[in-house]
C-alpha cells in the first residue's frame, strides 16, 4: 500500500524551451473519474525529453512543464468508475498531455484504462522503460496501415506462422524500438530478419532473433545490394525503420519491394515514387489515441504473457543515480548511447 503522508511532492520542471530543469515542491495531484494516482517509483528517459527541452514538442503546451513520458509504480488511489485496478496494484503507464500525467515527479495521475498491470516478476525499473519503445514497436508492427505494417499478432490464430519464410528488414536494430521490432518479427515467423547496427552489437541482435546483421555505416546503395544478396528473389514487403531520419527513410524505400510497406518512427521526410505501390507509414505509439484504442484493449489483456513466457526480452536498463537530480546529465548521455534504457527513481531525489 502507498499511503500519502504529505500534500506536496518533489517534481522536476522545465521553465521554458531551452531552459535548464529545476526541482520544485508542488501539490500532489488527485485522481479524477476514470483515473488512478500512482506512487511513481521509476521514470524512463527518452529522446523526446531532450528534444522537448531543446526545441519544444507540440504535446507540451503548458510551462513550467513536467516531462517524462513513461513510468511505473504502485496505485495509491482510484478515481470514480475505476473497477479493474485497486490500491496496491503495480502498474506502468505512458505520460499523457498534461503535467499531472508525466513521470519526472513522485506522484502521477494517469488514465486507468491504459495502465499496464505488471507481472510479479517485473521490476519497476524494467517496467518504466517499456511504454514508449515497446508500444512504438507493437503498434508499428501490428496495427494495419496507415498506422502500422499490419503484421499478424502472435496471439491470433496462426499468427506465429503467417509470415513464415518471408524476409523483413529492421533498420536501427540496437535502438530500443529496434530490439523489440526484431523480437516481434521473430514471433511472426519471418524466416529472414535483417537488421542494421554496429558490428559489435551483432551477438545481442542475433540472440533476439536477427538472422543477418549489416553494418549501419553502409551506403544506401551498398545496403540495398547486401539485402538483395540475402533475400534473392523473395520480395521484401515489410521494412521497420526504428531510426526515423531522412537517410534511413530513403534507405528503407530503396530496400522495400514494389507494393511493400515502410514503417518509420518519425514523420516521413521522403516520399515513395509514384506508381511504385510502396507506402511509407508513421507510427504514433500511444494506446490512448482513438485509432489505437480497440487494439489497445486487446493488447493490454495479453502483453504480460509475452514477457512471462520469455517470448520477449526487455531492453537492458541502467538506473541513473540521484533521482530527479540526475535527469539533466542523463539526457545528455542519452544522445550517445545505444542498446539500453536509462531510468531514474523519483523517490531517491535529494532536496
TrEMBL record:
It comes from Coniophora puteana (strain RWD-64-598). InterPro entries: ADH-like_C, ADH-like_N, ER, GroES-like_sf, NAD(P)-bd_dom_sf, Trans-enoyl_RdTase-like. GO terms for molecular function: oxidoreductase activity, acting on NAD(P)H. Residues 18-344 form the Enoyl reductase (ER) domain. This is GroES-like protein. It comes from the Eukaryota. SUPFAM superfamilies: GroES-like, NAD(P)-binding Rossmann-fold domains.
Amino acid at each position: 500500500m502507498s499511503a500519502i503522508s504529505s500534500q506536496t511532492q518533489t517534481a522536476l520542471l522545465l521553465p521554458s524551451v531551452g531552459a535548464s530543469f529545476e526541482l520544485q515542491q508542488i501539490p500532489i495531484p488527485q485522481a479524477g473519474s476514470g483515473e488512478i494516482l500512482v506512487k511513481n517509483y521509476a521514470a524512463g528517459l527518452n529522446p523526446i525529453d531532450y528534444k522537448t527541452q531543446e526545441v519544444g514538442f507540440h504535446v507540451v503546451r503548458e510551462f513550467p512543464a513536467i516531462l517524462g513520458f513513461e513510468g511505473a509504480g504502485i496505485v495509491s488511489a482510484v478515481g470514480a468508475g475505476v473497477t479493474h485496478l485497486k490500491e496496491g496494484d503495480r502498474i506502468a503507464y505512458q505520460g499523457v498531455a498534461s503535467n499531472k500525467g508525466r513521470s519526472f515527479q513522485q506522484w502521477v495521475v494517469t488514465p486507468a484504462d491504459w495502465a499496464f498491470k505488471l507481472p510479479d516478476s517485473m521490476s519497476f525499473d524494467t517496467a518504466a522503460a517499456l511504454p514508449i519503445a515497446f508500444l512504438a514497436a507493437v503498434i508499428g508492427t501490428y496495427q494495419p496501415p496507415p498506422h502500422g505494417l499490419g503484421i499478424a499478432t502472435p496471439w491470433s490464430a496462426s499468427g506465429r506462422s503467417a509470415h513464415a519464410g518471408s524476409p523483413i528488414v529492421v533498420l536501427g536494430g540496437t535502438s530500443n524500438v529496434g530490439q523489440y521490432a526484431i523480437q516481434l518479427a521473430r514471433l511472426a515467423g519471418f524466416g529472414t530478419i535483417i537488421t542494421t547496427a554496429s558490428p559489435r552489437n551483432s551477438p545481442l541482435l542475433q540472440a533476439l532473433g536477427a538472422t543477418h546483421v549489416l553494418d549501419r555505416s553502409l551506403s544506401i546503395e551498398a545496403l540495398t545490394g547486401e539485402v538483395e544478396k540475402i533475400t534473392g528473389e523473395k520480395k521484401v514487403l515489410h521494412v521497420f525503420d526504428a531510426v526515423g531520419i531522412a537517410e534511413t527513410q530513403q534507405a528503407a524505400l530503396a530496400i522495400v519491394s514494389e507494393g511493400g510497406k515502410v514503417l518509420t518512427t518519425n514523420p516521413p521526410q521522403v516520399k515513395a515514387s509514384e506508381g511504385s505501390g510502396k507506402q511509407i507509414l508513421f507510427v504514433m505509439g500511444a494506446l490512448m489515441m482513438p485509432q489505437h484504442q480497440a487494439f489497445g484493449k486487446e493488447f493490454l489483456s495479453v502483453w504480460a504473457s509475452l514477457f512471462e513466457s520469455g517470448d520477449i526480452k526487455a531492453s537492458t536498463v541502467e538506473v541513473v543515480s540521484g533521482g530527479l537530480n540526475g535527469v539533466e546529465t542523463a539526457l545528455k548521455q542519452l544522445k550517445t548511447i545505444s542498446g539500453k534504457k536509462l531510468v531514474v527513481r523519483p523517490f531517491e531525489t535529494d532536496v
